[in-house]
Design brief:
The chain has two domains: 3-256, Type I PLP-dependent aspartate aminotransferase-like (Major domain) (Aspartate Aminotransferase, domain 2, 3-Layer(aba) Sandwich); 259-350, Aspartate Aminotransferase, domain 1. It has twelve helices and eleven strands. The chain is of the alpha/beta class and 351 residues long. The relative contact order is 0.13. The strands form two sheets. A seven-stranded mixed beta sheet has the order 1-7-6-5-4-2-3, sandwiched between helices. A four-stranded antiparallel beta sheet has the order 8-9-11-10, with helices on one face. The structure holds pyridoxal-5'-phosphate (PLP).
Length: 351
């Protein structure tokens, strides 16, 4: 047992997990109270009458290979959302522990913390320094009850990458005290490397990846946490045994073959070039006060009249995201990069 188990919730460390029906495919299953026949019209390979394999080995090893990690460093969940929730539940004692976030950022970190009864400590990004991390203040606010530091890179809704060296320095300082969880939901759209390569030597560093954005599989609900095997083992005790449906397992394995990955890469290139085109066009619009450089598949824009922009986009049958409620980003909207035709229609509506 390392320091990881010492900072985790003691009741989770001691927890005896649910014993699911054993997974022994060569044997016929009369041990899980399943029906022996498939439902009419069930076209899955394995049959939906059977419970799926918990943490399906083939999917885990495929995702490990995709992300350059070992299977023992991988937890597959229903999107990154599930990893965020599991981390809060495994590391934060209700009413005692805290998570640290750097707003404006993804809302799920604070929501998961609050559901767990953990305190949320906010250290805002430095708006005037390109939404960069306030390293000194983060370290100052990391009191012993802070167990998780969520950093989102590229950050949602601001679109910028966080500085890798700063993240690594924060992680180095928190060894033995807290986990630094880097959410890389949009990293495929950035010209930057993943931090996964550091996970092996830094047990306090965990990285979240997802198939929801760059792979175009948001509906499949498949996210991956890459972390020290001790963290993964702890979370595996808490994740529901059959979290990943058989439909997702089969769909994702088919959709992560080489031809699909090639298409994915060409689409990332297309999104990046549209991002640059849309950014340039936005900058020349009179109502646009400010536009931030984005490393993701969306842009954050400050507008003279965000209400009118949202209304006009809606009249063009397009939804854009109102992010004014988030700290530090005044009159801004977040716009996802769509097809060239959608982007043109949006730009026209803002003109
Ligand atoms: C979209 C998004 C995710 C993805 O969540 P999933 O549950 O994997 O769909 C994770 N983090 C951030 C910051 C996001 O914007």
């Amino acid at each position: 047992m390392s320091w990881i188990s010492e900072i985790a919730r003691p009741d989770i460390v001691a927890l005896k997990p649910y014993e699911h029906a054993s997974w022994e495919p060569p044997l016929e299953r009369l041990h899980a109270n399943e029906l022996p026949w498939r439902a009419v019209g069930d076209s899955t390979d394995a049959g939906l009458n059977r419970y799926p394999e918990p943490q399906p080995r083939e999917l885990v090893s495929r995702l490990a290979a995709l992300y350059g990690a070992e299977p023992s460093q991988v937890l597959v969940g229903r999107g990154s959302d599930e990893a965020i929730d599991l981390l809060a539940r495994c590391f934060c004692r209700a009413g005692q522990d805290a998570v640290l976030i750097c707003p404006p950022t993804f809302g799920m970190y604070a929501v998961a913390a609050r559901i767990q009864g953990a305190e949320v400590v906010s250290v805002p990004l430095r708006v005037e320094a390109g939404f960069s991390l306030d390293e000194d203040e983060i370290l100052r606010q990391c009191t012993p009850n802070v167990k998780l530091v969520f950093l989102c890179s590229p950050n949602n809704p601001t679109g910028n990458l966080l500085d890798e060296q700063t993240i690594l320095r924060i992680a180095a300082r928190l060894e033995g005290r807290a986990l630094v969880v880097v959410d890389e939901a949009y990293v495929e759209f950035a010209a930057a490397d993943s931090l996964i390569k550091h996970v092996g030597r830094l047990p306090q560093l965990a990285v979240m990846r997802t198939l929801s954005k760059s792979h175009g599989l948001a509906g499949a609900r498949c996210g991956t946490l890459i972390a020290n095997p001790e963290i993964i083992a702890l979370l595996r005790k808490v994740i529901p045994p059959y979290a990943i449906t058989q439909m997702t397992v089969e769909a994702v394995l088919k959709l992560l073959e080489a031809p699909q990955l090639a298409v994915m890469h060409s689409r990332i290139t297309a999104i990046r070039s549209e991002r640059e085109r849309v950014s340039q066009a936005l900058q020349s619009l009179p109502g646009v006060k400010r536009l931030w450089r984005s490393d993701a598949n969306f842009v954050l824009v400050e507008l003279a009249d965000p209400e009118a922009a949202i209304r006009n986009a809606r009249a063009a049958n397009l939804l854009i995201r109102d992010v004014r409620a988030q700290a530090g980003v005044g009159r801004t909207v977040r716009i996802s990069i769509g097809t060239p035709e959608q982007n043109d229609r949006l730009l026209e509506s803002l003109r």
